[in-house]
């Protein structure tokens, strides 16, 4: 291989999510789980596992992207709380989860992991959620 390695999305993220958009820094992906409005923000940087491993400009851009999509998600889905997490225990590649939470959701008030099995979107549900995500994707793309 010559020179720099190319970014490759971790296979588990590719398997569990649906691509929505890309920026200079990140991929925005929808978790294929209709139990929660749930997006992932994945910085496209080779070998990065932790936030502090990003350059300061990339850290700042990631925060701006995260803030933009978080606000847009809360507006689009009218949630009670937005959970943002970077765990990486199962997938070491740095990625930020953005999950809109409701007091009526199956995991409230605890974390979403392991409470109910993931339920993939049907084609019709996916079309509907993608419509609701138009302003979120727009907010993501507008980050400079």
TrEMBL record:
<dbReference type="Pfam" id="PF01230">
    <property type="entry name" value="HIT"/>
</dbReference>
<protein>
    <submittedName>
        <fullName>HIT family protein</fullName>
    </submittedName>
</protein>
<dbReference type="InterPro" id="IPR036265">
    <property type="entry name" value="HIT-like_sf"/>
</dbReference>
<dbReference type="GO" id="GO:0003824">
    <property type="term" value="F:catalytic activity"/>
</dbReference>
<dbReference type="InterPro" id="IPR026026">
    <property type="entry name" value="HIT_Hint"/>
</dbReference>
<feature type="domain" description="HIT">
    <location>
        <begin position="39"/>
        <end position="108"/>
    </location>
</feature>
<dbReference type="InterPro" id="IPR011146">
    <property type="entry name" value="HIT-like"/>
</dbReference>
